[in-house]
Amino acid sequence: MTKLRIGVLVSGTGSNLQALIDASRGGRLDADIAVVISNKAGVRALERAREADIPSVVVSHKEFKSRERFEVALIKALRDHDVRCVVLAGFMRLLTGYFLDAFSGRVINIHPSLLPAFPGVDAQRQAFEHGVKIAGCTVHFVDRGTDTGPIIAQRALQVRDDDTAETLRARILELEHQLLPEALQLLAEDRLRVEGRRVLIADEGRRAVDHAALDKAERGA
Ligand code: GAR
Fold it and tell me: What is the pLDDT of residue 213?
């Protein structure tokens, strides 16, 4: 069976990218990372891609006059690598409907809060300063809003009295490294079905979409 080909979009450290690389190499994620694309040159995430022999490309948003032209370049780089699913792993640019239409229903994001609480930047600090007792992270499909798409999976932790914004950030990041490969594996196994705002997860071994039946229907059998 051909593996799901994913493109990972990054902007910085790339520890979530590393979690995907490790999961894919360790047999916990049936997906091939076909390309890593960064909107910033010189970031650690690009080094991680090189260390893992994964093709990487820099598409700097600064070099384009409009958001749409930037996205045209992103789409081209992803298509050049035959990518079927796009993962935003610490990618700090907002994507428009133009990009999302090119990979309809196949763009997912990891966000460091329990959405819909604390969307946008610096979510962990927002949560910490708000004084929440439970914090965590969310993997969701990307829609046209900021961190508003249907939720695939979430993981939570208890905020401790001795936490600081920084220790909380680090503890949430550890959860992200578990959650992102797990959520992506559900997608790789075709077990996700979106119904309105809800993402339903088919039981293990059962695909949400019956591809064999679809193929048969397409062939007119
Ligand atoms: C992660 O905490 C990720 O959830 C967050 O950026 C960090 C990237 O770390 N993303 C967002 O805040 C997106 N709104 P990484 O580069 O080490 O994976």
Answer: 60
